[in-house]
Design a protein that fits this description.
heterodimer, A: 308 residues, mainly beta, 5-stranded mixed β-sheet, 5-stranded antiparallel β-sheet, B: 167 residues, mainly alpha, 0% strand
Chain lengths: 308, 167
């Protein structure tokens, strides 16, 4: 072909300069012997290069420096005047963006139902360039000071900021180090490292709260009382847990009252002093205890009528 | 007696319960799918298959010898992890449960081993897998699964008891 563009660096940091050269072959028929080489960025004006000269073999070369690349993606054209217009001899794509910032807010949850450790993070500001995120981890010991076995990289789906480490890669009840690496052509960055035992970040589900119908012949009816029972969420049943119950009269602006340090399983639990309203909303949540853990969410609200 | 960290004991108790829970699931599945619901009917077969009954004699509350108990616990878990490996390919429906159970047993063995290392009571390197039962038929693999899992259950029951005693 008649013309050929060469770009010093096809991908630059946004705002950085770009140097390009265009060479026009002498045996390009139908063109003037020494055509004046012009440049155009996207749909901007045609402009001459900074310099143009003739190589020993007759090739014409022009160079241009775009001082500040402010497009994240742009086409640079090399043209020559021809008849009463211009002819495009070649086109090159230039991209600009930023090196990735350190991913932040890395957090992980262990799901007992899928037996996987799912981590998520915030990618940081837009880089305008294809950027790969990789969840990296290795097994360690108590204080995560040194690496034991490495764990295969976890590569998230396209444009996903979450990755799931399969159970077979996890050594439960031992600490592991986890972090996120972000990489594009302009650089690499890493998130702060987490040191965690997957079992300390189990995503615990709340128990199922149930109302108990107590036989008045067996237990005398007490005004303002109600009876409850709950069982731990089955997949987490092997974990010792502590729970707390909260209840609230169905009144506008009413506050919650909290009952703490409850067991994770209770066949019969009596709650009294409920005289403010005919209906109360009750919820329960649990946390692994005494071993470290995360609170489950509150159970769905249970609406109950205390005895009259 | 050697000081055992409370977190180690609590984690070990939880791991034992976790494995017991999953073992129950596997036994229920073996019973539902293959009607192999009574391990006691498979004792004879167990002898011929060489399904081990891992000892925990040093873990009994009357004669607790901690270092030997931890060592027996680790060897037993290592043994049963091998048995579970031999169950590979038992059936597509059961494979996920067997895989997870095997991982849980292996992880519990690591917890014990690392604590023994921390206490400096590790004489030699990790034990190597002794000869594992070789199942020559689908039935043997299923029956072996029932036996190995039920023996793992009772093994863990004893271990849980001993660990509870130490907590």
């Amino acid at each position: 072909s008649c013309g050929h563009i060469r770009i010093s660096v096809p991908i630059v940091r946004l705002g950085d300069p770009v140097m390009a050269s265009c060479t026009v072959s002498p045996n390009c028929s139908k063109l003037d012997r020494e055509p004046r080489i012009l440049w155009r960025l996207e749909d901007g004006p045609n402009q001459p290069g900074d310099k143009q000269w003739r190589l020993p073999d007759g090739t014409q070369e022009s160079t241009i420096t775009l001082p500040h690349m402010n497009h994240t993606k742009a086409f640079l054209f090399c043209l020559v005047p021809w008849a009463n217009s211009f002819q495009v001899l070649d086109q090159a794509e230039i991209r600009a963006g930023y090196p990735p910032a350190s991913p932040s807010n890395l957090s992980c949850l262990m799901y007992l139902t899928t037996n996987s450790l799912v981590c998520q993070w915030e990618p940081g500001p837009e880089t305008h360039l294809p950027t790969n995120f990789t969840l990296k981890s290795f097994r360690s010991r108590a204080d995560c000071q040194y690496q034991e076995d490495s764990i295969p990289d976890c590569v998230p789906g396209d444009r996903q900021n979450t990755c799931s480490i399969h159970r077979k890669h996890l050594l439960l009840y031992q600490n592991m180090v986890i972090w996120v690496q972000a990489e594009n052509v302009l650089g690499t960055s890493e998130s702060p490292k987490l040191c965690l035992d997957p079992m300390d970040v189990v995503k615990l589900e709340p128990p199922e709260l149930q109302a108990l119908d107590i036989n008045p012949d067996l237990v005398p009816r007490q005004p303002g009382c109600l009876w409850l029972s709950w069982k731990p969420w089955e997949p987490g049943g092997f974990m010792e847990q502590e729970c707390e119950l909260r209840y609230q009269p169905q009144l506008r602006g009413a506050n919650w009252t909290l009952v703490s340090h409850l067991p994770s399983s209770k066949d019969q639990f009596k709650l009294c002093g409920l005289h403010q309203a005919p209906v109360y909303t009750l919820q329960i949540r649990c946390i692994r205890s005494p071993l470290p853990g995360l609170w489950s969410s509150w159970s769905p609200g249970l609406q109950l009528r205390p005895s009259l | 007696t050697l000081p055992l960290p409370r977190s180690f004991l609590l984690k070990s108790l939880e791991q034992a319960r976790k494995i017991q829970a999953r073992s129950s699931v596997l036994l229920e599945q073996l019973c539902a799918v293959y009607k192999l619901c009574h391990p006691e009917e498979l004792v004879l077969l167990g002898h011929s298959l060489g399904i081990p009954q891992a000892p925990l004699s040093h873990c009994s509350s009357q004669a607790l010898q901690l270092t030997e108990c931890l060592s027996q616990l680790h060897r037993g878990l290592f043994l049963y992890q091998g048995c579970l490996q031999a169950l590979a390919g038992i059936s597509p429906e059961l494979a996920p449960t067997v895989d997870m159970l095997q991982l849980d047993v292996a992880n519990f063995a690591t917890t014990i081993w690392q604590q023994m290392e921390t206490l400096g009571v590790v004489a030699a390197g990790q034990p190597t897998q002794s000869t594992m039962p070789a199942f020559t038929s689908a039935f043997q693999r299923r029956a072996g699964g029932v036996l190995a899992t039920s023996r793992l259950q009772s093994f863990l029951e004893t271990a849980h008891h001993a660990l509870n005693h130490l907590t």
